[in-house]
Amino acid sequence: MAGRTQSPRRPDMTLSSPAIPRGPTLVERLPRGSALLVPALLFLLLFYVYPLAQLIGASLPGGSGKNYALIFSRPVFLRVIAETFRVSLVVMAVTVLVAFPYAYAMANAGRRALLFLTIALLIPFWVSLLLRSFSWIVLLQNTGLVNQVLLGLGLIEKPLKLIRTETGVILGMVHVLLPYAVLPLYSVMKKIDMRLMEASSICGASWFHGFRRVYLPMALPGVMAAAILTFTLALGFYITPALLGSPRDMMIAQMIAGQFSEQLNFGLGAALAVVLMGLTALAFALFGLGRVLLARRAAA
């Protein structure tokens, strides 16, 4: 009716389910920028984790560990593993000893000298590893430069046998691995304040005493990084020992290649590869333990 006021609408009293607040999704819970890691993770899964799983599966045919039992029961395999460790340790020690003064010179050089030393260090990367190994054959042969210089200086009466020997293998590997030792050493040494050495000299310490008690402890992180990098790379060397060494100097990478390409024993070759990775992981663990002990000793 006209004049009748319309009563207000009553609120709906029917019960409804309470609104549940939506929590953050898995993607939202990730730290900001983590999505950028997805391509790298996919790459690692596809080209590292999956092949590694395939390799481990090939080393265990039918779930049997007979290949590993064969490796650790045959003296020839144990000898090659021990030889690989021994040669890698020697190469590591020689490489770090040669790299230390070179990195020291780089850390204390002027701009032009640093540029020259850096170019001289990185030039070998422009040449393939195969060509560098062949160049050592030319240098170390009986009529090569090394023997001719030693003969000319009267230090030897007849040419030394340097090809197909362990000495040739070590020289070639040290040459290849030298940049990998110099760069981590230089990155640490360039941050060391040389005024500390001057202060130790003012306090009456000799150069050697100041170097041993002041400079060397600060350079130890670089030494450890160079040592673990060169040692782990030396464990898997193949081309240089194959060209410069003899069958007596065979390393585990050569034996792995022989099992795959010559013996066609893929299961045993895969097992040897897994053993090599295990030895590399063990080396990382030992070096990591050494760094922890050195850090605790320095903090004490």
Automatic annotation (TrEMBL):
Keywords: Cell membrane, Membrane, Transmembrane, Transmembrane helix, Transport. CDD domains: TM_PBP2. It comes from the Bacteria. The keyword Ribonucleoprotein does not apply. Its main location: membrane. One of its GO terms (biological process) is transmembrane transport. It holds the Pfam family BPD_transp_1. InterPro entries: MetI-like (IPR000515), MetI-like_sf (IPR035906). Residues 81-287 form the ABC transmembrane type-1 domain. It is a multi-pass membrane protein. GO terms for cellular component: plasma membrane. Residues 1-20 are annotated as: Disordered. Gene3D superfamilies: MetI-like (1.10.3720.10). It is found in: Cell membrane. SUPFAM superfamilies: MetI-like. The chain crosses the membrane at residues 36-56, 76-101, 113-131, 137-156, 168-189, 218-244, 264-287. Belongs to the binding-protein-dependent transport system permease family. CysTW subfamily. This is ABC transporter permease. The lineage of its organism: Bacteria, Pseudomonadati, Pseudomonadota, Alphaproteobacteria, Rhodobacterales.
